[in-house]
Amino acid sequence: MTALDQRHLAAVAALGVPVPQYDRTALAPRMLHVGVGGFHRAHMAVYTDEAAAEGGDWGIRGVGLLDADRRMADVLRSQDDLYTVIERDRDGSRPRVIGSIVDFALVAGDQDAFSARVADPEVAILSLTITEGGYSLATRNPTIEAIVSALDARRRAGAAPLTILSCDNLPGNGDTARKAITAVAEGRSADLRSFVESSCTFPNSMVDRITPQTKEEDVGWLRDTVGLEDGWPVVCETFRQWVVEDRFAAGRPRWEDVGVLFTDRVHDWELYKLRMLNASHS
Predict the structure, then answer these.
(1) What's the pLDDT tens digit per position in 86-140?
(2) Mind spelling out the 3-state secondary structure of the chain?
(3) Where are the domains of the chain?
(4) Residue 175 contacts by C-beta under 8 Å, 6 or more apart in sequence?
(5) What digits encode the pLDDT tens for the residues 41-85?
(6) Is the pTM of this model over 0.90?
């Protein structure tokens, strides 16, 4: 049995599993992602891994705001932040190791630690996968409140521009994130609202990849059939799609080199997904 970590990557490759060939230590963690779950690890992190394989140097630093993120923190820490994506279709299952996540910090209950990471001037993108309900302000929203407090720390630290990139599967996700964050910021101070409006961008995007919850059988298949021990692999379909508005305040990876479509007509692609992809699935 081969353990999944940086030290054993050559042994993992010997099992026939593709592994990162780039130098992970050379990746700069310019992206901070809130909500490192199955979809993020099967979608944005995969595109970023492939961009790194093409010579890019952007890496992802994950951050967990909830106590429920503790298990993810433990698994990623034990595996040097490496994990396996298992693409599955009628022809079988194909595992590969993803290396674009270079750090994960559990900051549940520690606003100062989260704010320090968001205020880091090296961070250019704050990306989110917090589910559709994660943007609701019908009641007090601790996640949005934490993000706004962190943005205030960034403002006070020098107000470096920042892209806030929602990767949640809902129409107008960037607009939704902007409205929620701006509303809470407005309740804090005029200066904070001004910073959000003038220095932060919120690109809309259309995301798609079916990513069911990982089951114990998936962990067992990887262990017993492939010979690889991974505490939390991700299983997904082979199809994936990401359509994004190219409105980034402080740079971004060259995701277009690995299949991401940049356009100012994301809404058209949302209609395509709702009327063609989703309808055919139904």
Answers:
(1) 999 999 999 999 999 999 999 999 999 999 999 999 999 999 999 999 999 999 9
(2) CEECCHHHHHHHHHCCCCCCCCCHHHCEEEEEEECCCHHHHHCHHHHHHHHHHCCCCEEEEEEECCHHHHHHHHHHHHCCCCEEEEEEECCEEEEEEECCEEEEEECCCCHHHHHHHHHCCCCCEEEECCCHHHHCCCCCCHHHHHHHHHHHHHHHCCCCCEEEEECCCCCCHHHHHHHHHHHHHHHHCHHHHHHHHHHEECCCEEEECCCCCCCHHHHHHHHHHHCEECCCCEEECCCCEEEECCCCCCCCCCHHHHCCEECCCHHHHHHHHHHHHHHHHC
(3) 2-281
(4) 202, 204
(5) 999 999 999 999 999 999 999 999 999 999 999 999 999 999 999
(6) yes
Task: Give the per-residue pLDDT at 268.
Answer: 79
Length of the chain: 282
Question: Encoding tokens for residue 213?
Answer: 């919850």
Residue 93: strand pairing partners: 88
Q: How does the average pLDDT of the chain come out, rounded?
A: 95
Q: Domain 2-281: state its class.
A: alpha beta
